[in-house]
Design goal:
two-stranded antiparallel ribbon; 15 helices; 479 residues; Rossmann fold; 18% strand; alpha/beta; disordered N terminus
């Protein structure tokens, strides 16, 4: 599998610093938390212990860590738990970057907890696995061989992790929900509020399904439903149509990209017939050969279409390739992959969580059928081909049932989210009778800091005000 390692600089916005600390929780330590911007704020570091697998006898224990920013409002509500995406993202790290001001703003409503879920950030004691399987970066490899190599490699890694004393059945969203309840008890709270993005929305929906009576309010964006870990390729095609409609509103962009789907399809078809032989510069100055196949570009596209600015980048790559110019794709490969690393490897939490949530046989069949004609094929979904390696990892159809709850929930969605789609978000949250929806027109997957209006909408919701039906319009990036 091509390993994408994009390191995108984040713009940081000024926050605030509290002058006094709330009463500590037993076991917490006072710290000065520093954001990447250099801003500092008094906070607490804490931890609590949970079983790795609550369904197993003599399970080993995990120490889960968090940073707590004390409430600043006159009347503090329930603790607000931030849930990162991925799966695999660190809540503590997220608080250091561009969302730092939103962490600070949320303190008006209660203590804000930057939580590292099991297997992530400061709560991670799991080794990554590098298998004995390799996928050539210089010779053509069929999709069938590619996926079979992935499955063999993942089976190796399941054995490796088990031999390392890790219970691979402990890394599920159901166990993550139980961790949230344990964190609630640790904090001494009757209820908690949840604030999640992408996989964090998936975890929030599972919490609404399993512990809604212990939840106060929920704010989620980039919605990934309990039966939506595996994305529909046909909906990726519909995303390109929405992107085209937005492009058509800007004459300069329309002139440059009159037919996005046709351009993408034409370049992918050409690579299918004739992969491109490239030379990728390395830090040492050596140029390493790399064979760009259709699959590579589908993988890059799947990763980059999450937000409009990155979608603009990949569309310009397609436009350049269509004109015979390989400079942009070579630069992208230079930043994103190590062409000398051909071994198949896996981060345990990321893959185990996704595989446990799974898709079920019927949905897998639907996805496979859609992939035959969809532009990105199966490459929106790295976990689906691995689901049958060990069926015992699957949480089952009961888990994948959409939650029914009357907990007040704010659902934010971007019309140009290329990873989690507005229609899917509506389906995933239809059982939430106390749902309010906010649409960010031209917004993508990462909405939280796109506009001050997004922050205002969240604050209004947390105050109990009505924001249902609100539309926030932002500008498109330059194409």
């Amino acid at each position: 599998m091509v390993k994408l390692v994009f390191l995108i600089p984040l713009t940081l916005i000024t926050g605030c610093m509290t002058s006094s600390l709330a009463q500590t929780i037993p076991g917490e330590a006072a710290v000065v938390f520093q954001a990447q911007s250099g801003e500092k704020v008094d906070a607490f570091e804490g931890s609590f212990i949970v079983p790795e697998n609550r369904n197993a006898v003599d399970s080993r224990s995990l120490t889960l860590k968090y940073v707590r920013f004390p409430a600043t409002g006159e009347t503090a509500g329930e603790p607000i738990i931030y849930l990162s995406g991925g799966p695999g993202g660190s809540g503590i790290e997220a608080a250091k970057y561009e969302r730092f001001p939103l962490f600070m703003a949320m303190r008006e409503f209660g203590d804000v907890i930057a939580f590292d879920q099991r297997g992530t950030g400061a709560s991670n004691d799991l080794p990554n696995c590098t298998s004995s399987q390799h996928i050539s970066t210089t010779n053509p490899t069929s999709d069938a061989v590619f996926f079979e190599t992935q499955r063999i490699a993942f089976a190796e890694c399941l054995t490796f992790w088990t031999d390392e004393g890790i219970d691979v059945h402990g890394y599920t969203t159901t166990q993550n929900v139980a961790d949230l309840d344990a964190l609630r008890e640790h904090l001494g709270a009757k209820k908690i509020d949840l604030w999640g993005i992408s996989y964090g929305s998936h975890l929030s929906l599972a919490a609404l399904q399993q512990m809604d009576e212990r939840l106060g309010r929920v704010v989620i964006t980039a919605i990934e439903g309990l039966n939506q870990t595996v994305k529909q390729p046909a909906r990726a095609d519909l995303y390109f149509e929405r992107l085209q409609a937005a492009i058509n509103m800007v004459p300069e962009a329309k002139a440059k990209f009159p037919d996005v789907k046709e351009l993408v399809g034409r370049v992918l078809d050409r690579l299918e017939v004739e992969p491109l032989q490239l030379d990728i510069p390395t830090p040492s100055g050596e140029a390493v050969p790399y064979l760009l196949q259709r699959r590579d570009l589908q993988q890059f596209t799947s990763a980059l279409v999450a937000d409009p600015a990155r979608a603009a980048l990949i569309l310009n790559v397609y436009r350049a390739l269509d004109a015979g110019d390989t400079e942009m794709i070579t630069s992208l490969l230079q930043r994103a992959v190590d062409p000398t690393d051909t071994a198949v490897s896996f981060r345990p939490m990321t893959y185990l969580m996704d595989i446990a949530s799974g898709s079920g046989a019927a949905r897998r069949a639907m996805i496979t059928a859609q992939a035959e004609t969809a532009l990105l094929g199966l490459f929106m979904n790295f976990s689906m081909p691995l689901e049958t390696v060990d069926p015992s990892l699957d949480l089952g159809e009961t888990f994948r049932t959409a939650p029914v709850s009357d907990v007040p929930t704010l659902v934010l969605s971007g019309t140009l989210d290329g990873r989690t789609y507005p229609k899917s978000g509506q389906e995933a949250t239809r059982g939430l009778s106390n749902r309010q929806t906010v649409t960010v027109t031209n917004g993508g997957h990462n909405l939280f800091m796109l506009s001050p209006e997004v922050t205002t909408a969240i604050q209004d919701f947390m105050r109990g005000e009505m924001v249902d039906g609100l539309e926030i319009i932002i500008d498109l990036p330059e194409f």
